[in-house]
Specification:
Shape of chain B: elongated
Number of domains of chain A: 1
Radius of gyration of chain A: 13 Å
Structural class of chain A: alpha+beta
Oligomer: heterodimer
Distance between the termini of chain B: 36 Å
Largest sheet of chain B: 5 strands, mixed
Structural class of chain B: alpha/beta
Number of domains of chain B: 5
Strand order of the largest sheet of chain A: 1-2
Chain lengths: 72, 755
């Protein structure tokens, strides 16, 4: 069965890892909160593995899921 | 120092707040759902309040519909009803009660009849009624409504004649209308028969009813309108209302008999009832009846009905912005909170309301029965903490702030020259954060004018964790403060904040007073100046039930020449400004509504004696002063943001250490410069991100070099996990440091995953 993805982002090549000096790529990541995990696709540095969470995601969907989990 | 996040959403622990019996006891205190006085007085259970409301609104059809619910013969009942409701009308206490009987007559006269639905199937059991008179008339109507095949045996020769017995008081048009109603009913009449033949005729019917006196009954029971010995539904009635009520009871007895059940069991509540309703009349002007005697016009009746105050108890909701926000009366709210706490799996829909109450206890004072919603929310919070179901997120910032107050910003020193002190000044965490200059001035004054040494303790009283329901943290905070006080020689604590005073009073054996009491005792300093314009005094919710404190503040204000103006909900009834109970952190919307509720009482500048009130009122744009600012001639000015509040505490501590105790505080040099755009400062305050969080992220960046460059904005973004939160900072590099252009955070942690 295909794994469900909660969020997919297209890095569009505009993001660059400052440490490794390489563009971020679409990569597999996972959000964890209160013992719950959510697989997502986020911009990731292919070299050092830095996972970038854009502001609109943090303040949008991430916050909404946090709130929902907090009241579980 | 960080707090531990709750473990998992999959922990299935349960604990009840209190027993079911206790829940019911608490719920029963709320009288909002009790019937209005007029409704309770009516044995026929007319919804008088609703009927009068419909008349006032000109909805005559609805009014008639309500009235017809209680009687098949509205013309007869309304013409002769003794109206016990009128004497119970609350307006009687102020002048004249609503003329309900006249209104009923008007309803019958003017109300348009709404055609009811389809005719119902007749029941199988047959009923005979012998005789005539009011009881028989009403009973025939009631049984017809219940769809029994009814046969009436009477001496009279026509429907008109049948109705005319005992109804001399009904006007001619009422009689004509009643006759039309009777004829429209599916009732078999045996006119001209002799009811005395009952014994021979009754065998054809399943149930037999008769007028009182037709048969000799020795075991008549007026509660059931039934004689078991004679198997007869009958009873003695006096007057129209009694006859109508008797007919209702008799019809219910017929129902029970038709089902071969004992007529005395499971009858439900019959007749008039007592009510525990409370109605506040303080704002109701006395008034007199507008109708009476002559039949009134529609307009006159509507005007009279408009006098009705629609008795209800909403004392708590009227006073409390929180209850208004959630549109719930305490009874419902309590049940929902109780059930919410018991949920083991699934959504806790009431967590937000539980955490939005300011715990100020105003409800317990304005409610005639002392309903304490605050206590219920507090117990709920503690129970959720126990079961691990309390989210940390809504309270974490405040709890961290408390740890900061009792950690980095904490200060406890005896007055120079004293090892043990007679007093210790405890200004409270909000005073040091909002008005540090006032605190410094107050301490200097106390040291100068009190004998025996005055120590200083800058810290938090523990209210924060108490409000958050974190009782273990509270015990720790309490033990910490007690140990500090012991070191100082157990001095008398001079609280600068009524909430601190209240919280500290829970520490057994503590000697406690307020700075307001001391100032009243030793007199005002020279700096004391009242406001030049009249002002409204806002009582702190922390001083609820503390009349001496409320009075001491008034005495101080008046001694300074303040012209205080009375406001509604003062002293014990005062509402919370929105800071209490951590509402400010858990629900900004409700907190704002609370602040506005405080401010709607007067347009004048506000004087308060809790620094949080002073702060929140000023934030709403109201001129707002703390009593100690007036005493010491200081002005804290515009409210500080969250970072400034922390900075104020640290710099006050450093300043006092330097000036009073000759101790230099080592300033921490982070080794780089940070600039903030004005926009980001506003944003950070809104998102509860502190400058210390930004420093944390930038320090992490300097250590790891991890950041992302966004080519679109030209900004770099770095992040750090600080405690339970990941902070992201958007910045650009400047000489020797960074210019911060954006910041955001989330609580979820994020990892890279394989596969």
């Amino acid at each position: 069965m295909a794994e469900k993805n909660y969020y997919t982002v297209d890095p569009l090549g505009k993001l660059m890892c400052m440490k490794c000096r390489v563009p971020l790529e679409k990569g597999k990541a996972k959000f964890l909160y209160l013992d719950n995990g959510f697989p997502v696709e986020l911009p990731v540095c292919p070299r050092c593995g830095f996972v970038y969470v854009p502001e609109e995601l943090a303040l949008g969907k991430v916050q909404a899921v946090e709130r929902a989990l907090e009241d579980k | 120092m960080f707090l531990e996040e709750r473990e998992s959403t999959h922990v299935y622990k349960q604990q009840v707040m209190f027993s079911k019996e206790e829940l019911e006891r608490r719920e029963s205190l709320c009288v909002h759902e009790e019937p209005a006085y007029c409704n309770a007085a009516c044995p026929l259970k007319l919804d008088t309040k609703a009927m009068v409301k419909a008349v006032a609104a000109g909805d005559w059809a609805k009014a008639l519909q309500l009235y017809e619910k209680i009687t098949p013969f509205p013309h007869i009942l309304s013409a002769g009803c003794e109206a016990p409701c009128e004497g119970k009308c609350k307006l009687c206490q102020l002048g004249e009660g609503v003329a309900i009987r006249e209104l009923e007559r008007a309803v019958v006269r003017f109300g348009e009849k709404i055609r009811r639905g389809l005719p119902r199937m007749k029941k199988k059991k047959t009923v005979a009624i012998f005789g005539s008179g009011l009881f028989c008339t009403f009973l025939a109507g009631e049984l017809n409504k219940k769809a029994y095949p009814v046969t009436v045996f009477c001496r009279e020769d026509s429907a008109e004649e049948f109705l005319s017995r005992e109804t001399a008081f009904v006007p001619a048009e009422g009689m004509a209308a009643s006759a039309a109603v009777l004829k429209g009913m599916d009732i078999q009449f045996r006119f001209g028969s002799d009811p005395a033949d009952m014994e021979s005729l009754r065998r054809d019917f399943d149930i037999v009813c008769c007028q009182w006196g037709l048969a000799e009954v020795s075991d008549g029971d007026n509660a059931l309108m039934y004689s078991r010995e004679k198997k007869l539904v009958t009873g003695q009635t006096t007057g129209v209302l009694d006859a109508a009520f008797g007919a209702k009871k008799a019809a219910l007895t017929v129902d029970r008999l038709a089902q071969n059940l004992d007529p005395s069991n499971t009858r439900g509540e019959e007749g008039s009832v007592s009510t525990r309703l409370y109605t506040d009349l303080s704002e109701v002007p006395p008034s007199r009846r507008l109708i009476g005697g002559e039949p009134c016009t529609k307009e006159q009746a509507e005007a009279e009905a408009a006098r009705c105050i629609q008795c209800t108890c909403d004392a708590c909701v009227k006073a409390c912005a929180y209850l208004q926000h959630y549109r719930k009366f305490p009874r419902t709210l309590t049940r929902e909170i109780y059930n919410n706490v018991n949920i083991i799996m699934g959504d806790h829909m009431m967590n937000k309301p539980i955490n939005a109450c300011s715990l100020c206890g105003q409800c317990s004072v304005v409610c005639p029965n002392g309903y304490d919603v605050a206590e219920i929310c507090h117990i709920a919070r503690q129970t959720l903490v126990t079961t691990g179901k309390m989210p940390l997120a809504p309270h974490e910032f405040a709890l961290m702030d408390m740890l900061f107050s009792n950690g980095e910003a904490f200060l406890c020193r005896p007055q120079p020259g004293f090892e043990k002190c007679r007093y210790v000044f405890f200004p409270g965490c909000q005073a040091t954060a909002i008005a540090p200059d006032t605190v410094a001035a107050a301490y200097a004054d106390l040291c100068a004018r009190l004998d025996g040494g005055v120590a200083l303790m800058l810290g938090c009283c523990g209210a924060i964790c108490d409000w958050a329901g974190r009782y273990e943290m509270y015990d720790e905070a309490r033990a910490f403060l007690d140990a500090q006080l012991e070191k100082l020689g157990d001095p008398i604590v001079i609280a600068g904040c009524p909430t601190c005073k209240k919280e500290l009073s829970g520490h057994g054996g503590l000697k406690l007073t307020g700075i307001w009491d001391i100032l009243n005792e030793i007199g005002l300093p020279e700096t004391a100046r009242g406001m030049e314009v009249p002002a409204a005094l806002h009582d702190a919710c922390g001083a609820r039930g503390d009349e001496p404190t409320q009075q001491a503040i008034r005495n101080l204000a008046e001694a300074m020449g303040c012209a205080l103006v009375d406001t509604p909900y003062d002293r014990d009834q005062s509402p919370c400004c929105g800071y209490g109970g951590l509402t400010q952190y858990t629900n900004r919307e409700v907190a704002k509504a609370m602040t506005r509720k405080c401010l709607e009482r007067s347009d004048l500048p506000y004087i308060s004696y809790c620094m949080a009130c002073r702060d929140r009122f000023a934030r709403e744009g109201r001129e707002s002063r703390h009593i100690l600012e007036l005493v010491y001639g200081t002005n804290a000015g515009s409210p500080p943001d969250i970072s400034q509040k922390r900075y104020n505490r640290l710099s006050l501590k450093a300043e006092l250490l330097r000036e009073i105790w000759n101790e230099e505080t080592q300033e921490v040099d982070i080794g780089f410069k940070i600039e903030y755009t004005p926009e980001v400062l506003r944003l950070m305050n809104d998102r509860m991100i502190l400058k210390s969080d930004i420093i944390g992220v930038l320090q992490e960046l300097r250590k790891t070099g991890e950041a992302v460059l966004d080519a679109e904005t030209g900004l770099c973004v770095a992040r750090a996990r600080l405690g339970n939160v990941t902070f992201w900072v958007k910045y650009e590099e400047i000489e020797d440091g960074y210019r911060v252009c954006g910041a955001y955070s989330h609580r979820m942690s994020v990892i890279r995953r394989q596969g």
